[in-house]
Amino acid sequence: MTIQLDPGIASETELAAIGNTALVEVTGLDLPASVGRSRVLLKLESDNPGGSIKDRTALNMVREAELSGDLQPGATIVESTSGNTGVGLALIGALTGHPVVIITGQDTSTEKIEALRRHRARVVFADWEAAADSPENPRAVAARIAEGIPGSWRPQQFDNAANPSAHYFGTGPEIWRQTQRAITHFVAAVGTGGTVTGTGRFLKEHSQGRVKVIAADPEGSVYSGGEPGRVLVDGVGNTWPRSLWPTSFDPTVVDEYLSIGNDESYTTLHFLRNRHGLLLGPSSGLALAAARRVAAEAPDGSVVVAIAPDTGSNYLSKAFNPQWLEQQQIRVAGKLPVLDVGS
Ligand code: PMP
């Protein structure tokens, strides 16, 4: 049985605040005049108490494991994660009496590391670039640490069905309700694929296949079919061969992939802050840039919903730091790029 993310389940604690995030319309996108009546909406997952969509995933994985008996009361949770899932697990662990150990990479933002420690998680650094079969690979490090802690449990979000189901039972129904079933396109960036798989599947099933699902892919990621390179959008994209893609991602849900360059993602991210006062993470810029392109090509009257996975307050030292942007050779323009319809 899957627990729905209903606020009633934990009314005494911050767990109650997970899910039921706002859906806001984004205007001023300079869409071609012909698409004047299409709308672009952004689901603000930054509203979750841990600051990201991963609170939903962490909560659902912990609840499922408690129900199945895989996670016993007081047992330790051990997970390798680039940050947001760790913050979600640390928050939920602290509230439900489970110690949490997070294995993360050296380039995880200092703000996310601080958030992990604030929720009393133990943080261990591993080599994020290490090959899948290397003992220094974060998952190998997590396995070793878990072996040394009797009764510990590893959520393994990349291969855990409770990851996409958090979105099938939470994010998807919320969007369906909030748009009053009018959504025509759903856009999400892909990390573990849990968001796009669970939300996309729900929306397709409930619209008899009408809703199109678009995966926004950063420069350097192979999901959209390109060569592996350096990915400069935190938490998303993949550089591994298809045989190693996460099982939490079901590619059959995706109708189309859009590869978005770093300049466009970060320009869109800064647009959101400057024009709308929304301080969000880089994958939100990526998803909105893709949604903008989708809206420019979609039939008049389309309703395009994109996911904004996390808050920008975790990236002040990176995405909103001019020096970091310059080091990464990312150019943030003052205006959104002009979209060529039909190109
Ligand atoms: N954006 C950010 C910042 C993330 O941390 C993640 C999760 N890794 C995602 C997007 C993608 O979510 P999912 O894992 O559900 O594909």
UniProtKB/TrEMBL annotation:
Q: Which UniProt keywords apply?
A: Pyridoxal phosphate
CDD domains under this entry?
Answer: CBS_like
Note the Pfam families from the entry: PALP
Entry annotated with the keyword Oxidoreductase: no
Q: Does the keyword Cytoplasm apply?
A: no
Q: Name one GO molecular function term.
A: transferase activity, transferring alkyl or aryl (other than methyl) groups
Pinpoint the Tryptophan synthase beta chain-like PALP domain residues. Answer: 17-310
Q: List the GO biological process terms.
A: cysteine biosynthetic process from serine
Ranges that cross the membrane: none
| Cofactor(s) named in the record | pyridoxal 5'-phosphate
Q: Family per UniProt?
A: Belongs to the cysteine synthase/cystathionine beta-synthase family.
What is this protein identified as?
Cystathionine beta-synthase
